Amino acid sequence: MCFNEPMTPTPSLVIIGASGDLTRRLLMPALYRLELAGKLPPLKIVGYALEDWTPEYFRGRIESGLLEFEKQVDLRAWETFAQRLEYHSGDLSVEKIRALEPFTQGEASFYLALPPGVFAAAAQGLGEAGYASEEKGPRRLIIEKPFGTDLKSALELQSEVVKHWKESQVLRIDHFLGKETVQNLMVFRFANTPIEHLWNNRVIEEVQITAAETLGLEGRYKYYDQAGALKDMLQNHLMQMFTLVAMEPPPIWDADVIRTHKVEVLKSVRPITSENVHDHALRGQYAGYLEEPGILPSSRTETYAALKLYVDNWRWKGVPFYLRSGKKMGGTYTEIALKFREAPTRLFTTTSKNPLEDNWLVFQVKPDETIDLILTVKKPGLDLSSRHVSLHNEYEDGHQGFDAYDQLLLDALEGDRTHFLRMDEVEWAWKILTPVLENWSSGSPVPYESGSSGPEELAPQGGWRPLRFVQPD
Fold first, then answer.
1. How far is C-alpha 329 from the chain's CA centre?
2. How high is the pLDDT of residue 469?
3. Distance from C-alpha of 254 to C-alpha of 269, rounded to nearest angstrom
4. Would you name the residues annotated as active-site residues?
5. What's the pLDDT tens digit per position in 424-467?
6. Residues 430 and 443 in one domain
7. N or C: which end of the chain has fewer CB within 10 A?
């Protein structure tokens, strides 16, 4: 006698707030690219939003988004992808949200593509509807940044989330952690013995982490004027890159081990106090910001923020970490740059016709993804003079056009929490910045011109690196 095995329900990804721009512009193109590459596991993708749409209308909207944001749409891949898509309308009430039950009979992930103000309500509604229970399979809650607007609100949001969800079920997304160069930072450092031996205060003089852009508000004034550069970029994106640079080598590749090492960095940051904020933080505002549509003339929101942090541990004692981000700057450029100390010798001071320049290790994240080790060598010819050369690695098309969201969505669906924030990471990042936020509740930002490098106050001793990478001759 033969008995049929019961069929395992297909896992599902439910996007709460699926009618929004995040879903159409970023999430669905990322999922489609995974489909195109054959990386997307068996999965139902369920859109859920207030709009009273039919599944057919939802699929048509997603298709038009792919045609708008993707260079090319493969018809066969789209047809396969479209068969995964479902849609249901409703609000965040328990009664409405329970209608998702037929789509979530097994493993399920819930992505909150919602305004931050309703994260708690969504987590509560899903929890009270029973979706946090793992009787039918793993359950995950994926939350976009920002996780709170300060330490108090972050802790309040966490208290609401954990009423129904375990910390191990919560995946807090920071899309910078999915970027190829940021992930390669760990491989480059920990897989190469010579590099790790250089990664300390005996060899490194300073670290600069920059995320600059030429754009202004681009219609996001309602959000941005409430947030500003410090909350929008430094508290999350740049703080994450900072922890990856400064963390100790983990003994194994394990999500909690890696995240614990990152938290150790944050705990080792020299405290910023109300008395020394001006030595560690600077805010700026580009000329013309107050004339932007929707901005009040009294706004003190910073469009540029810079931090100078010290990690008081054996590895980094005395090394300043400079973090900066701003809008309307002279370039769209993101990099992590480590400056090597000057060679302790006078050997070339009387022979070289040009002064010896600084040596750098540069991880460029944007506009191109590259790694450059900038060294000094002799110029060809009869004279003993020097020049810079770069040992250059360029990704080109090696990552096949994948984006940060592609990587993070795939990790989330597979239950890999390595590149997602744990709550203590969020909490300690806010703790570091709380004195700065309190100080900036009064006073005004330093003005700077559009297209510039931003305010020069708090710049490193040798100045900020230029907002574009120039290959040495």
1. 20
2. 64
3. 24
4. 237
5. 999 999 999 999 999 999 999 999 999 999 999 999 998 999 98
6. yes
7. N
Look at 359 and 207; give whichever has higher pLDDT. 207
- Strand pairing category for 304-310 and 360-366: unpaired
Residues 6+ apart with CB under 8 A from 68: none
pLDDT-derived band at 5 (thresholds 50, 70, 90) equals low
358: CATH? 3.30.360.10
Q: Is the pTM of this model over 0.85?
A: yes
Give the 3-state secondary structure of residue 133. Answer: coil
CATH code at position 123 = 3.40.50.720
DSSP symbols for 269-335: BPPP-TTTHHHHEEEEEETTGGGSTT--TT----SEEEEEEEB-STTTTT-EEEEEEESSBS--EEE
24: how many CB neighbours lie within 10 A of its CB?
Answer: 19
Q: 124 vs 209, 265, 402, CA distance in Å?
A: 37, 32, 33
Q: Which residue has the tokens 């550069």?
A: 229
CB neighbourhood size of 266 (10 A) = 23
Indicate whether 163 and 194 sit together in one domain. no
Return the residue matching tokens 């879903």.
23
Same domain for 263 and 365: yes
User: Do residues 406 and 70 make contact, with C-beta atoms less than 8 angstroms apart?
Assistant: no
